[in-house]
Structure formats: structure tokens, C-alpha cells
Design a protein that fits this description.
mainly alpha; globular; 20 helices; Sodium/glucose cotransporter
């Protein structure tokens, strides 16, 4: 394992070095939070693919392939479909808003009151996403270094918090590009073909697999539908995803770069499923499907390659964790803390650029340490992430998408949708269980009915506000420019 140790150590040192380099580029709030809105197609595609494909997509995708066969690709496929839908239909408009958070978008569209509830819900979601991504480090460090779970969480979490706090989105973007390349090489170029060849090729592998493993629906139609509701729609409204859209140089980069990243996700989904199927053919009686990724890596890959593939899995986790961490810090600092500060001090003017960078950097450190502590003590991470996604989609999907596509939607309708969807989700999670499908089904339905009914029953948004919103979405000035002076 000495060579594998060196490969992993080299990767971790490279990530820290790239993160330190990114510190030099973070000279303003825009640089720190959204990479100065300067990313071109290549970097945008790589960083978007990196943030949406984390440990759940890599190790979890292999586990689902081991358990259900090709239909195990459904979860990551739903993520790819969500990214495609976001990129094709909404990302250009989102990029032109030139804001920093989803709550700011809701404030522009409906008024300041709409951002209060959404900011809190989005903060809980992004923090829990950071926690679950941090916990996933244990699965890699345990295979390679045989360290306790808490030590793996602290080691991985400290590295992510360190480079994220150094240069913000610039450090995260540069490290994401390294992680995107390593992940592509490790999973798609190395692990996938080696695993399939070890299993005897596709034809022999198919003969050795249980019945139904080649069916695209063996995981269950209801499960696939739930994945679409949670992950496809979650991609449309998550702060961690929107914050990457804000980094695009222009709306064309956001559209085409995101589309390329979405297609990459679909390929990655199938790769994970096929790796899991190969593992099932080779090792059909594992004690737990959660061991599938570690088993195929340990027993089929040569020295050195094993270290690179584990680095690829680690890179997937780190990219998602860093994206969730900066998203959580941005929401906490800009939507919650800044609002409380203005109400307490009554100051209309915000802090200068250096203070903005300092406060956002501090938020990353504080929330990063919080995520590490929670990750060390939390038991049921699946339940925690499910709660976060249910609240996010059930409470915020309808008012966010409604604000983008329906002119008649207004502030009372948005607030009613958030409250009705959130209460329905919480109530049904208590009654039916945290992992039940009913909370998200009926939560979305309640939010939609409340949004449409209350919007139609109350006064429309003032025309001046609607016109200002339309201009903002179109990338035009919020007010018409003054006519040029006439010269004689």
C-alpha cells in the first residue's frame, strides 16, 4: 500500500496547494463568492459536474448498481436530468440576475419578506449537505489508512474547510477542476473498464447476474419517481447549484456549460451502475451492499491505480462538501446575519469589500467546524439529508419556479406556498416516517395549490415591480437610462 499512500498524499498536498493559489484571486466579494462571475465554458462545466457528483453519486451509485443492476443508475440519472433542465430552461435567466443567493432572487421577485423563510430553509439544507458529504470521507480513509471514523472526518473536513476559507469560490473552482479530472480518470477511464473486464465482459457478466439486473425499472417505478421529485427538482433550486450558475461569464456559458455537465452526469450514472454490477458478478455475497465500492477497489485494482481511484472517490466527496460549505456560509452571512445586523444597527450601508471577504471567510470556518462536529456524532445521515431535501423541495420549489415562469404569482402566494408546503412535509414526516414518499408528494401538491389559489385571490404584484423584475431577468438596467443631452 506504500505507493497508494504516496498517491493519496500527493493528491491531498496538490489540493491544498491549488487552494492556496486561489487565495491570490479572491480580491473582492464577487471573487470570493462567485469567482468574479468570470468562468468560461471549460471551467464552468468542470466545476458544475464536480459539485453535483459527490460521494453519494460515486460510492452510492456503485452500491445501487450492486443491489438493483442497471436501474441503480436512476438516482444519479435524476441528478443529471435536473442539471439539464436547469441549464436549458432557467440558468440563463438566473445568471443575468447577478445576485449571490436564492433568497435574494425571491426578494427581488416578491419582496423582502419572501427571503426570510427561504434563507433559513436553504441554510439548513446546505449545512446538512455539507455534513453528509463530510461523513463520506470515512469510507475512503478507512480503506486506505484504517483510521477511526472520527479521525477520517476531521482529516478530510479540515482540508476542505482550509482551502475553501483561503480563496472562497476561486479556490473551490480551481480544486474542483483538479478533482473533476481525477474523478473522470479514476472512475470512467480506470475503474469502469477494469471492473467489467475482471467480471468477464458485459456478456459473461450478464449471465452471472440475478434476474432483472438488466431491467431499467427493477429498482421500482415509485422509487424512480421519488428520485425525480427530490433530486431532479432539487437541482433546480439548491443554493449550492445556483451559486455555480452565478460564476458563469455570461448566460451562454451557463446554458451550454451546464448542458455538457448534465450529459456528463448521465454517463457517470451508467458507469456507477455497471461498476456495481461487475462487483455483484465477482462478489455476489457481500455482507452489505455498502461494501461494494471498497471491495472492487481493494481486490481488483493494481497498486498505484488503487490509490488514484480512491483519490477520485475522495475528490468527488470534497467537491460536493466544499460547494455545500460555501453555499451554507453565503446564505448564513448574506441572508441571515446581514439582515440581523441591519435590524440591530439600523445601518443602511453594508461593510466594505475587505470586511465582506473577512466575514464570509469566518462563516466558512465556523460552519465548517460545525459540520465536522455534527458529522462526528450524527448517526442516521440518510434521514438527515432526506429531511433537508424534503423541506427544500416541498417548501421552496413552487415559489422559486413560479416566480421565474408565472407573472401572476405574488408575495402572498409565495409565502402561502412556503408555509403550506413546509407544514405538510413536516407533518407527514412525523406521521409516515422520515424516509416515506408521502411527505414530498403531498408537500409539493399543497404548495402548488396554495401558490395558485392565494396568488389569484389577492392583488397582483405592482406593475412597476414586475417591470423591474423583467428588466433584471433580461439583463437590462432596472430603470430606463436618462436621455442623452442635446448638443448644438
Amino acid at each position: 500500500m506504500a505507493v497508494d499512500y504516496l498517491v493519496m498524499l500527493g493528491y491531498l498536498l496538490a489540493i491544498v496547494g491549488v487552494g492556496w493559489w486561489g487565495k491570490r484571486l479572491a480580491a473582492s466579494k464577487s471573487d470570493f463568492l462567485v469567482a468574479g462571475r468570470r468562468l468560461g465554458p471549460l471551467m464552468y462545466t468542470g466545476t458544475m459536474a464536480a459539485v453535483v457528483l459527490g460521494g453519494a453519486s460515486t460510492i452510492g451509485g456503485v452500491r445501487l448498481g450492486y443491489t438493483y443492476g442497471v436501474s441503480g443508475a436512476a438516482m444519479v440519472f435524476a441528478i443529471g436530468l435536473g442539471l439539464l433542465a436547469l441549464s436549458v430552461f432557467f440558468s440563463a435567466r438566473i445568471a443575468r440576475l447577478r445576485v449571490y443567493t436564492v433568497a435574494e432572487m425571491l426578494s427581488l421577485r416578491y419582496g423582502d419578506a419572501a427571503s426570510v423563510i427561504s434563507g433559513v430553509v436553504m441554510w439548513v439544507y446546505t449545512l446538512m449537505l455539507a455534513v453528509t458529504s463530510t461523513i463520506a470521507y470515512a469510507s475512503v480513509f478507512d480503506v486506505l489508512f484504517d483510521v477511526p471514523r472520527w479521525a477520517a472526518v476531521v482529516i478530510g473536513g479540515t482540508i476542505v474547510v482550509g482551502y475553501s476559507a483561503l480563496g472562497g469560490m476561486w479556490s473551490i473552482t480551481l480544486t474542483d477542476m483538479v478533482q473533476f479530472v481525477i474523478k473522470s480518470v479514476g472512475v470512467l477511464v480506470l475503474l469502469l473498464p477494469i471492473a467489467v473486464i475482471k467480471a468477464g465482459g458485459f456478456s459473461e457478466m450478464a449471465d452471472r447476474l440475478p434476474h432483472g439486473y438488466l431491467s431499467p425499472t427493477s429498482i421500482g417505478g415509485q422509487t424512480i419517481f421519488t428520485y425525480v421529485l427530490i433530486y431532479t427538482f432539487g437541482m433546480l433550486i439548491g443554493q449550492d447549484i445556483w451559486q455555480r450558475v452565478f460564476t458563469a461569464r455570461n448566460d451562454r456559458v451557463a446554458t451550454w456549460g451546464g448542458t455538457a455537465a448534465g450529459i456528463y452526469c448521465l454517463v457517470y450514472a451508467l458507469a456507477g451502475a455497471f461498476i456495481g454490477m461487475a462487483t455483484k458478478a465477482l462478489y455476489p455475497h457481500l455482507a452489505s451492499a455498502d461494501q461494494a465500492f471498497a471491495t472492487i477497489v481493494q481486490h481488483t485494482l493494481p497498486t498505484g491505480v488503487r490509490g488514484l481511484v480512491l483519490a477520485a472517490a475522495l475528490s468527488a466527496m470534497m467537491s460536493t462538501a466544499s460547494g455545500a460549505l460555501i453555499a451554507s456560509a453565503t446564505v448564513a452571512n448574506n441572508d441571515i446575519w446581514a439582515r440581523l445586523r441591519r435590524r440591530t444597527t439600523g445601518a443602511a450601508d453594508g461593510p466594505d469589500e475587505r470586511d465582506e471577504i473577512r466575514s464570509n471567510r469566518l462563516a466558512i470556518v465556523v460552519l465548517g467546524v460545525t459540520a465536522i462536529v455534527i458529522a462526528c456524532v450524527l448517526g442516521d445521515v440518510l434521514a438527515a439529508l432526506t429531511v433537508a431535501y424534503n423541506l427544500l423541495v416541498g417548501g421552496l420549489l413552487v415559489p422559486i419556479l413560479g416566480g421565474l415562469v408565472w407573472k401572476r404569482g405574488n408575495l402572498p402566494g409565495a409565502l402561502a406556498a412556503m408555509i403550506a408546503g413546509g407544514i405538510t412535509v413536516i407533518t407527514l414526516m412525523v406521521v409516515e416516517g422520515l424516509l416515506a414518499n408521502e411527505p414530498i408528494y403531498f408537500g409539493l401538491l399543497a404548495a402548488l395549490v396554495a401558490y395558485v389559489a392565494v396568488s389569484l385571490a389577492t392583488k397582483p404584484t405592482e406593475e412597476a415591480a414586475v417591470d423591474a423584475w423583467r428588466r433584471r431577468v433580461a439583463g437590462e438596467p432596472a430603470t430606463a437610462p436618462e436621455p442623452a443631452p442635446v448638443t448644438v
